[in-house]
Every structure is written in C-alpha cells, then in structure tokens.
Write a structure and sequence with these properties.
Helix content is 43%, strand content 17%. The radius of gyration is 16 Å and the shape is globular. By secondary structure, the chain is an alpha/beta fold. The protein has a single domain (5-207), classed as Alpha-Beta Barrel (TIM Barrel), CATH 3.20.20. The longest helix has 18 residues, at 43-60. The chain has helices at 19-28, 43-60, 70-76, 90-96, 109-118, 142-152, 168-173, 183-186, 191-207; strands at 5-8, 33-36, 63-67, 80-83, 101-106, 122-125, 157-160, 178-181. The protein has nine helices and eight strands. Strand 4, helix 4 and strand 5 (101-106) form a beta-alpha-beta unit. The structure holds ligand LCLJCK34, the ligand Cc1nc(C(=O)O)sc1CCOP(=O)(O)O and magnesium ion (MG). Mg(2+) binds at residues 68, 87. 2-[(2R,5Z)-2-carboxy-4-methylthiazol-5(2H)-ylidene]ethyl phosphate binds at residues 131-133, 162, 182-183. Its EC number is 2.5.1.3.
Length: 209
Amino acid sequence: MPYSLYVVTDPDLSLGRSHAEVAALAVAGGADVIQLRDKSASGRDLFAAAELIRTITTSAGALFIVNDRLDIALASGADGVHLGQDDLPVRAARKVAPDLIIGVSVGSVEEGRRAVVDGADYVALSPLFSTPSKIDAGAGRGFDLLAALCDDLTVPVLAIGGINASNVSQVIRAGAAGVAVISAVVSQPDISKATSGLKSIILEAKKSV
Ligand SMILES: Cc1ncc(COP(=O)(O)OP(=O)(O)O)c(N)n1
Ligand SMILES: Cc1nc(C(=O)O)sc1CCOP(=O)(O)O
Ligand SMILES: [Mg+2]
C-alpha cells in the first residue's frame, strides 16, 4: 500500500531541520509519502524545497505530495497535491491535472463521497484525534467516522491528527489504509528511527486486518 506511512513536513515543528533534511531522514526510515507543508514560505522558497524533495523521494521510491499548492506540485514534478475543504476545489484541480494524485481532507462521510465524485485519489480523515500541531484542526472525529469512511468509500482512507507510536496500531486495525503524521516523526530527535519504528508497527498491524 503506497500510503502506509505518510510524513508531513512542518518547519515550526522540526527542531531547526530543513524540509529536505526531514524528507531525506524520513524516507531513509521507510516513509512511503512525503508531503511538503509550509504555511508561510514564499512561492520561490517552496519551489526550491519542492525540487530538493522531488530528487530525494525519486531516489527512495517514495511519493511526493505538495500541500495546498497545485502550481508548485506541477512545476516541481510532484506526484500529487493535497487539498483541504477551503483550498482549490478538487474538480478544478482535476481539470488542469488529470494525472496528478489528489488527496482531500474530509470530516464527514458526505465530504468523503463528494471528494471521490470530484476526482480524489485518497481522502484523509481530519483530524482523527485533536492535535496541537494544527491549531484550527478542531476536535478529534474519532474511530466511528473512520470506520464509516473506510466502509463507504472506494478510495484509500488515511487518518491524520494526534497519531503516534502508541495509537497507530489501533488506527490501522480500524481500517485506515495509512496514517499521516507530523510530530511523531518530524519533532523527534532521530527522525529515521521514529519513522522506522512507526512503519514496523503499521506493517505488523496490517497483518491482522
Ligand atoms: C494528509 C493530510 N491530511 C490533511 C491535511 C490538512 O489539510 P487542510 O485541511 O487543507 O489544512 P492545511 O494542512 O492546509 O493547514 C493535510 N495537509 N494532509
Ligand atoms: C496538517 C494537519 N492537518 C490536520 C487536519 O485535521 O486537517 S491535523 C494536522 C497536523 C497533524 O500533526 P500531528 O501528527 O503532529 O498531530
Ligand atoms: Mg490546505
């Protein structure tokens, strides 16, 4: 499954390490996907980081997704873009990027169904648990909604928000195709070790699904 462990970068939570450093260490530890996420960088700086991560992920055989910015995703040759409910509509992105992976944040079954109809390749339940890593993410939506999305949708369902080594096994056993994390990887002193630790738990949990 290409989305098992999906690592999202964040310059404010990375203990001073650059997007590219984080990406290189995470793919070395077995991350399947790297998402470049930076809410304050200029387009120029974001593109420079994207070019570096494109090279790193290609060498490692990992996917590369850009958060929010379809233009940066296309210009850097990324595999995909991740869009939230307030971002560019999926339908509009799909029109100009027929072959790109498009991921969408969803907070209900209705949003999930609409994302799929509009052309999403995966959805992420946002957030599964409340998290200090994104102040406007709101309350955790819980396992019942995760299970309902997994039952209902025809695309892989990921979960994001508050996921770490102590709860990831439960998330996979609830049916998620994978998990997206920031702090459980990028805020750890040893990013590769944290990534490989999470990945082992995910692979073990998948054996019982
Ligand atoms: C994998 C994944 N899931 C959810 C999000 C959140 O997207 P969004 O709601 O658009 O919020 P921002 O990340 O843009 O602040 C995500 N980025 N990645
Ligand atoms: C980027 C992001 N989006 C979320 C959402 O719910 O939409 S929660 C989140 C941050 C996830 O960070 P952590 O793994 O440290 O909890
Ligand atoms: Mg967004």
